[in-house]
Amino acid sequence: MATLFISDLHLHPSRPAVTDCFIRFLEESASTASTLYILGDLFEVWIGDDNPDPHHRRVISALRRFTDAGPECFFARGNRDVIIGRRFRTETGVQLLEESTVIELYDTRALISHGDELCTDDHAYQRFRLRARNPTWRALFLAMPLQARNYLAQHLRNRSKADTALKPEDIIDASPEAITDAFVEHRVSMMIHGHTHRPGIQNLEVFRKPRTRIILGDWYEQGSVLRWDESGYRLVTLPISTDDNTP
Ligand SMILES: [Mn+2]
């Protein structure tokens, strides 16, 4: 059985083919995966678990069918879906993770996170990040009527360049110092994260020890999955059908 990692799907009603690809991926993985880690930005925007948007409800139902079928599913919030909460957890059966989590897989200690905390050179973004993760700010936002939250979320997306970015070059990359610090602080030889939309597997040496950094890809042009089983780990891509009439 495989352990799967995904991030940065940015699911949105305007891109139904990506949502179809994700739901197909869940259906196919339900019998072949033991665990799925979703490392943030599953949704393009999340204004609260009480949003009745049919697109979101469809994704929630698909996740529920997946967890009911057997695999465990863990979710680390990204900057787009940072306020996902308890109701989402109950409805989907996924387990919510802290911002950074250390897991052990095939004798490897791995740090998993969304990855935005590593982009310390982007000061404006880090200020936004602190506010969005502040419980008081979150409670105030969630107390607003849905329509007002929708409006505010649109406004924030339009205003912040980093937040509307669809291409890797628009997102400031992780800082080398933050990467080194994270390896040392968490005493891990591996880290897995998304957010930067620059997929790849990097073999590094940090304080004379070999370390591996795996960056997950986004789901704009194709699906991107890290698959890890007894035979090792690899990044694989999934086709997104652009023909909506495909049966
Ligand atoms: Mn992100």
Structure overview:
It is a single chain. The chain has 247 residues and is of the alpha/beta class. It has one domain (2-239): Purple Acid Phosphatase, chain A, domain 2, CATH 3.60.21. The protein is 34% helix and 26% strand. The chain contains eight helices and eleven strands. It has helices at residues 16-29, 54-68, 86-92, 123-132, 135-143, 146-159, 161-164, 176-186, and strands at residues 2-6, 33-38, 72-75, 95-96, 100-105, 108-113, 190-193, 200-206, 209-215, 222-229, 232-239. A six-stranded mixed beta sheet has the order 4-3-2-1-10-11, with helices on one face. Strands 5-6-7-9-8 form a five-stranded mixed beta sheet, covered by helices on one side. Helix 1 (16-29) links the parallel strand 1 and strand 2. Helix 1 runs parallel beside helix 2. It is globular. The mean pLDDT is 92. The structure holds manganese (II) ion (MN). Manganese (II) ion (MN) binds at residues 40-41, 78-80, 114, 116, 195.
Helicity, in percent?
A: 25-40%
The profile of the biggest β sheet is: 6 strands, mixed
C-alpha Rg (nearest Å): 18 Å
Number of domains: 1
According to CATH, what is the topology?
Answer: Purple Acid Phosphatase, chain A, domain 2
Mean of all residue-level pLDDT scores:
92
The backbone outline, from C-alpha atoms, is: globular
The helix/strand order is: EHEHEHEEEHHHHHEEEEE
Q: Which blocks of ≥5 consecutive residues have pLDDT under 50?
A: none
Q: Largest beta sheet: what is the strand line-up?
A: 4-3-2-1-10-11
Helix-and-strand structural type: alpha/beta
CA distance, first residue to last residue: 29 Å
Ligands:
manganese (II) ion
DSSP helix count? 8
CATH class: Alpha Beta
